[in-house]
Write a structure and sequence with these properties.
alpha+beta; Hypothetical Protein Mth938, Chain: A; 3 helices; 19% helix; disordered N terminus
C-alpha cells in the first residue's frame, strides 16, 4: 500500500481523482494532504505555491522540465481566477501543453471529469480554506 504524502516526501505515486478540497488541503485515495497539490501522471506531489502571486516558471519546473505526459494543465489559483504571467502560456505552448487558470474548486471538478475520461490532464492546485 502506498503511503500518504507528508511534509517529508510529499508524494503519492499514482494519479488519482480528488475526493474533497478545503480546510487548507485535499483528500484523495482515502488520505488527507495539507497544502497545495500538483497532480501529474507520475503521481500527486506537494506543491510549494501558496498564493497566485508566487506562480512563475520555477513553480512549474516539474511540468516544464520533465516529460510530464499531459496535454493540459489546469491551474487552481485559489478562491478566484487569477491570470497567469504572459510568458508562462508560451513556455507551456512550446512543449505542446495547454494551461488553463481557474478557481481551485473549478479546477478540481474539471480535473476529475477529464481524468475520468482518461484524458492526459494535470492540475496545479493552490489549497483553499473553504470549498465552494
Amino acid at each position: 500500500m502506498a503511503k500518504a504524502p507528508t511534509g517529508r516526501d510529499g508524494h503519492y505515486p499514482y494519479q488519482t481523482a480528488i475526493d474533497a478540497y478545503g480546510d487548507g488541503g485535499f483528500r484523495f485515495a482515502g488520505m488527507s494532504h495539507r497544502g497545495s497539490l500538483l497532480c501529474l501522471p507520475a503521481g500527486m506531489f506537494a506543491w510549494s505555491v501558496t498564493a497566485p502571486q508566487a506562480i512563475d516558471r520555477a513553480a512549474f519546473a516539474a511540468v516544464l522540465d520533465a516529460e510530464a505526459g499531459i496535454e493540459v494543465l489546469l491551474v487552481g489559483t485559489g478562491d478566484d481566477i487569477v491570470f497567469l504571467p504572459p510568458g508562462l502560456r508560451d513556455a507551456f505552448g512550446a512543449r505542446g501543453i495547454g494551461i488553463e487558470p481557474m478557481s481551485t474548486g473549478a479546477a478540481v471538478r474539471t480535473y476529475n471529469v477529464l481524468l475520468d475520461e482518461r484524458r492526459k490532464v494535470g492540475a496545479a492546485l493552490i489549497a483553499v480554506e473553504r470549498a465552494r
